[in-house]
């Protein structure tokens, strides 16, 4: 497998992963309660959603750059790395910040 194809496939996998993290961010963001704990969860959702949005844009850029023959392979790998890194950061924020009930 060529490096350009590998970068494109990883970017293709990063798109649904970032969409899933965006959904998690929306789920955390919409709270029915107005308590301090619920507001902390909503803030956590905003950060997760923002990181997932950045990752989604990077994944789309990785898909576009990875298929254009004239562009550098470094750009494709950089965009793919940013997209996958955003997914990992979103997962870490989701897991590391305790839920409001604890």
Give your account of this protein's structure.
The chain has 102 residues and is mainly alpha-helical. Helices cover 81% and strands 0% of the residues. It is built from 3 helices and no strands. The longest helix is centred in the middle third of the chain and has 32 residues.
> Low-confidence segments, ≥5 residues, pLDDT <50?
none
Assembly state of the chains shown: single chain
User: How much helical structure, as a percent, in the residues?
Assistant: over 70%
Structural class: mainly alpha
Major sheet, described briefly?
none
Q: Give the end-to-end Cα distance, rounded to a whole number of Å.
A: 47 Å
Work out the number of β strands. 0
Q: What's the tally of helices?
A: 3
Tell me briefly what this model is:
The protein has 102 residues and is mainly alpha-helical. 81% of the residues lie in helices and 0% in strands.
Key words describing this protein structure:
mainly alpha, 102 residues, elongated
Lay out the secondary structure:
Layout: H1 3-29, H2 36-67, H3 73-96
Helix pairs in contact: 1-2, 1-3, 2-3
